[in-house]
Specification:
The protein is elongated. The longest helix has 15 residues. The chain has a 5-stranded parallel sheet, with helices on both faces. The protein has a 4-stranded antiparallel sheet with strand order 6-7-8-9, with helices on one face. It has a two-stranded antiparallel ribbon with strand order 10-11. Helix 2 runs parallel beside helix 3 and helix 6 packs across helix 8. The two termini are 28 Å apart. The chain is of the alpha/beta class. The structure holds calcium ion (CA).
Length: 222
């Protein structure tokens, strides 16, 4: 999934970015509210982590304007303990959730996971696709009760496919969800991930078919 972190405290932002990258997500980082708006104009995000106190335009104004423009990107607000009222107002102006600084990274990740899941329309972190079980919170996949180890990127590629069953995805769409603006995948990266996934998912009810000249489509065996 693609996540935008808007936080001017660079050390904290980098720590958040590392955590999410380790989970296989792609990250972009904005330092000011104005930067954040530029990113939002260029790219669709699955989640935005938004600090309230920013140089220039603050997080509230960014959030308010997004919602006014009917931008429904899930927003997780970061707020300091001294700014207790911020939490209430953040929810009032359209934040989906908040965490209070200083926070435990596990809490941040759990809340982020819940929002990403909700965006994909799942109420639980575990989804079952025929004989294939996909567990987002444990980062595990199993086929017929056989556990399959997938590196983070492959896990995310599969997650993207499972969220788009029967829909053709172009390589560009997959790349957009997997990589931030700062890292560019090699031209064959997606082909490579798909090839590896196919091999590992042998016998699974979910299969990934190549649609010549267009991209890929994930299909469920009946
Ligand atoms: Ca700040």
């Amino acid at each position: 999934m693609r996540i935008l972190v808007v936080e001017d405290a660079v050390d904290l932002a980098e720590a958040i970015i590392r955590r999410f990258q380790r989970a296989g997500h792609s990250l972009d980082h904005a330092i000011t509210g104005e930067d954040a708006e530029e990113f939002l104009d260029l790219q669709q995000y699955d989640l935005m982590v938004l600090d309230i106190n920013l140089p220039g335009k603050d997080g509230f104004s960014v959030l308010k304007e997004m919602r006014k423009k009917k931008d429904t990107t899930p927003v997780l607000v970061l707020t300091a303990r001294s700014e207790i009222d911020d939490r209430v107002s953040a929810l009032d102006v359209g934040a989906d959730d908040y965490v209070v600084k200083p926070f435990d990274f596990r809490e941040l990740e759990a809340r982020a996971r819940a929002l990403l899941r909700r965006k994909q329309g799942y109420s639980s972190s575990v989804t079952v696709h025929g004989n294939t079980v996909f567990d987002r919170s444990k980062g595990m996949v199993s086929v017929d009760e056989r556990t399959i180890i997938l590196p983070n990127r492959e896990f995310r590629v599969l997650e993207i496919f499972l969220g788009n069953i029967d829909r053709i995805l172009t390589k560009e769409e997959i790349v957009e969800q997997l990589y931030g603006f700062d890292d560019s995948p090699g031209p064959n990266a997606i082909e490579l991930y798909v090839a590896r996934l196919r091999k590992k998912l042998e016998g699974a009810s979910v299969s990934i078919r190549t649609v010549r000249g267009m991209g890929y489509v994930a299909e469920l065996e009946n």
